[in-house]
């Protein structure tokens, strides 16, 4: 409302969530239950057509995505529909979570590569810190990025003492005992184990303290057990030095805790900005951070905050010194309020100015030259398919509305004629039933007729195949008989020749015997040759049969695939 620019927000739907209390429309789209895998987050369905249609109806000038996965896919589909440029903000080092969730290294790297490609498909890339931009570039992003600092919705200034006492009532927080604060998700990669190890060093040095952890997360129980192992928990009626409050969503209560604390401890190198550091600064609370981390950008150690090396010994040594000089911590907190704090409104004003720059770039055609890849074609095809389905749904809706209006008019006319709606509907129903029965009978008759023709065709094909088989068998039989007759005839001729030879003189008979023996050998050789030829023909026929069967099987499979593809297209 400050910039007279209406917005809508699309988000994965969370069961039981109430989206009606926001000062702008929220479009929750279908999501998958991935909380156990994705550190408490659900995964949105990137092809939620209804939600995308609602967003498209809003006709946005700018599309702003904050997640490199499904949200950016939705943004790209929406861009294809409304032709608005996409701004993407890189908030979190997603690669750390992905490598933790996906155990197969190659699969994790390909997923990261796909997400970076999704980011590269956007038109203007924002990062929440310079370190975040360098992290994105290290993942393979080759484009330009622009640093846009996050602002906080905390008002600047400490809350009054009454609000502090109300928020912290029931907790053992002695005066003049240093109280340290951590706010965030209970994850080991946030540096919580380092905090506990440093507190052990502080405790061993004889310094009393209270450490308050606000937040929830999958590693909360693990961290509680570690604190218990060090003797920091409230067990056996002994006041604990570590307090785990769980999640606190009331912003005013969080402001009270930040006001009560002496030092905010945030040794995370995972976070790309550390919004909680700016929230602490809003309440005049200085932070101790890891030197060179994204959260430490803008912090001058010793003036508006403190930095240490990324190890428990360095943090523990600092806490020992800090506990001895609480006024210095409060002075650094005042500088943090004056120098680090950035209000939400100021951050939005900067974003709005950048939006105007993006729209100017679009008007100049700067984004038309963006290099495209195969995923752009896929997104475009998907968007067109979804658009066509939406158009057909709208046509069906209009047809139904027209029919409804016509039906209502018919009913009114019928009533005016003195006929009740009930009797009219009864007649309509009877007519529909009769028409249905007639249609069913016709369909059954047509089906029976088609089946009869199919059966006749099958029988005709089978008869032709049987005739061809019988014809081939008859020819084979004739060839066998011809060979056998030729052999018998040769034998008979040789027998007659032998009988005639018996009547010749001995010398002539001997000569003829030799000739006959030679002829027998020749006949035997011919018979063997014929047998080999027959075997060769049989083998050739078998090979040809197998080849034919294989070709038929391949053709049948191709026909089956084509039919299935045709069915799916229909």
Task: Give a short overview.
The protein is 60% helix and 9% strand. With 570 residues, the protein is of the alpha/beta class.
Keywords:
9% strand, 60% helix, single chain, four-stranded parallel beta sheet, 570 residues, alpha/beta
Helix-strand layout with pairing:
Layout: E1 9-12, E2 26-29, E3 31-32, E4 43-44, H1 49-58, E5 63-65, H2 70-82, E6 86-90, H3 94-101, H4 105-120, E7 124-127, H5 130-138, E8 146-147, H6 161-168, E9 179-183, H7 192-204, E10 210-214, H8 220-229, E11 242-246, H9 251-260, E12 263-266, H10 275-282, E13 287-290, E14 306-308, H11 312-323, H12 326-339, H13 344-363, H14 374-416, H15 421-502, H16 506-569
Parallel strand pairs: 1-2, 5-6, 6-7, 7-8, 9-10, 9-12, 10-11, 12-13, 13-14
Antiparallel strand pairs: 3-4
Helix pairs in contact: 1-2, 2-14, 3-4, 6-9, 7-11, 10-12, 15-16
What does it look like?
Helix content is 60%, strand content 9%. The model has no long low-confidence stretch (mean pLDDT 83). The chain has 16 helices and 14 strands. It starts with 8 loop residues before the first strand and ends with a helix. It is an alpha/beta fold. The relative contact order is 0.07. α6 crosses α9 (251-260) and α7 (192-204) packs across α11 (312-323).
